[in-house]
Write a structure and sequence with these properties.
binds adenosine monophosphate, Molybdenum Cofactor Biosythetic Enzyme, Chain A, elongated, binds magnesium ion, Molybdopterin biosynthesis moea protein, domain 2, Molybdopterin biosynthesis moeA protein, domain 3
Length: 416
């Protein structure tokens, strides 16, 4: 096993965050196995087929307003024109006749544009007496008409393989009349915490014990990703227990996520055990928090050994495991969205490691994006992570940041 060195943050053995991600993607593949699901059940799943439309949406030209359907050629260039109302087109109940010059119909939003008409006059802009309406100038031929296929036309590909299906995507599929789609099967992810000091909520703490919080944060973030979750509990810092848990997890999952036991303390068995039973790819990354991180393979399952400190565990999950799981689920490689913001706090930072400090972003009175630090940034201080709504992402080379300087922020998605 490699050994840790150096209090020095510049360590040539450390991988950069980008290198670590590239290595991870290189070693992973999309999972095999599809299933056909009703569209509601396909929410949060990844499409395994391209979806193209067999219909136009909308399927017929229809009115965007309540008003009157008229012929553009009847619109007055000056003064007023009177038209006779010969019927009504309701949404779902079209007017079936043909409108001639000098005529119009009443029409409601979403109703089919009657034959012979091409223009809608808003009801507020006519004078009406009995079945005669009077229209002035200021209208244009074609106005307030939603054309056939305005949203989607026949044959158009609207959702591609690899699309993570959002609530709106489900609505889109329904708008095309598609009842079922082919999606990737769910990824099976098992996870457990390691540490003799950990107790589950509901138990009483003895001297030196703490509550296991990682398994709960991880449960939350995994739930948001739409994977099958297998919670394997807490495993003691005993090599035989760790080994047994690893083998059990590998049997039932595509991915194993553990927290704790990846540094080089005497009681840290995760990396050793993985090296014995599978392959370890790397284990130190130039990032803060989260320097010790194990990635490897265990009997065909991908393995992520996250650090035990609660903030480190969630930051490394977010930066590495989440994109990796999305990729395995069948999505494309995702580039994180990071945007500049004015930093309102002074930030302490030594060059040498990329940092993911916790921030609270907001807009100031001028509408500019600003960010404040959540304060103390220790990797055990989960409350600072819970107050945050974004990471302040500081490059490896960056030093201290003065208040008023620009920084890059990465808004949380799935963490709040
Ligand atoms: P380790 O990575 O095992 O050396 O743990 C680093 C620190 O994180 C120690 O202070 C542990 O007590 C703490 N820790 C480890 N696992 C958890 C967990 N599941 N929940 C809360 N704290 C933890
Ligand atoms: Mg430990």
């Amino acid at each position: 096993m490699q050994t840790s060195c150096c209090s020095n943050d510049y360590d040539s053995q450390l991988l950069t965050v980008e290198e670590a991600l590239t290595n991870i993607y290189h070693d992973l593949e999309h999972i095999n196995g599809n299933e056909q699901l009703a569209i509601r059940d396909a929410l949060d799943r990844v499409l395994a087929e391209d979806i193209s439309s067999k219909i136009n949406v909308p399927p017929h030209a229809n009115s965007a307003m309540d008003g009157y359907a008229v012929k553009g050629s009847d619109l007055p260039s000056e003064g007023k024109t009177e038209l006779i109302m010969i019927g009504t087109s309701f949404a779902g109940q079209p007017y079936l006749g043909t409108v001639q010059a000098g005529q119009c119909t009443r029409i409601f939003t979403g109703a089919v544009i009657p034959n012979g008409t091409d223009t809608i006059i808003m009801q507020e802009n006519v004078d009406k007496q009995e079945n005669i309406i009077s229209i002035g100038t200021g209208n244009k031929t074609g106005q307030h008409v939603r054309p056939v296929g305005e949203d989607i036309s026949i044959g158009q590909t609207i959702l591609k393989i690899g699309k993570y299906l959002s609530p709106v995507d489900i609505g889109m599929l329904a708008s095309l009349g598609i009842p079922e789609v082919k999606v990737k099967r769910r990824l099976r992810v098992s996870f457990f915490s390691t540490g003799d000091e950990l107790r589950a909520v509901g138990e009483t703490l003895e001297a030196g014990q703490i509550y296991d919080s990682n398994r709960y944060s991880l449960y939350g973030v995994l739930s948001r990703l739409g994977v099958d979750i297998i919670d394997m509990g807490v495993v003691l810092d005993k090599p035989e227990d760790v080994e047994q848990a690893f083998l059990a997890a590998a049997d039932c999952s595509d991915v194993i996520v553990t927290s704790g036991g990846v540094s080089v303390g005497d009681a840290d068995y995760v990396t050793d055990t993985l090296q014995r039973l599978g392959e370890v790819n790397f284990w130190k990354v130039a990032m803060k928090p989260g320097k010790p991180l194990t990635f490897g393979k265990l009997k065909g399952s991908a393995f992520f050994g996250l650090p035990g400190n609660p903030v480190s565990a969630i930051v490394t999950f977010y930066q590495f495991v989440q994109p990796a799981l999305r990729y395995m689920m069948g999505q494309d490689i995702i580039t994180p969205v990071r945007v500049p913001a004015k930093c309102l706090s002074t930030l302490k930072k030594s060059p040498g490691r990329m940092e993911f400090q916790r921030g609270i972003m907001a807009t100031d009175e001028q509408g500019n994006l600003v960010v404040s630090s959540t304060g103390v940034q220790g990797s055990g201080i989960l409350s600072s992570m819970s107050q945050a709504n974004c990471f302040i992402v500081l490059s490896k080379e960056q030093g201290n940041v003065e208040a008023g300087n620009k920084v890059l922020i990465e808004p949380f998605a799935g963490l709040i």
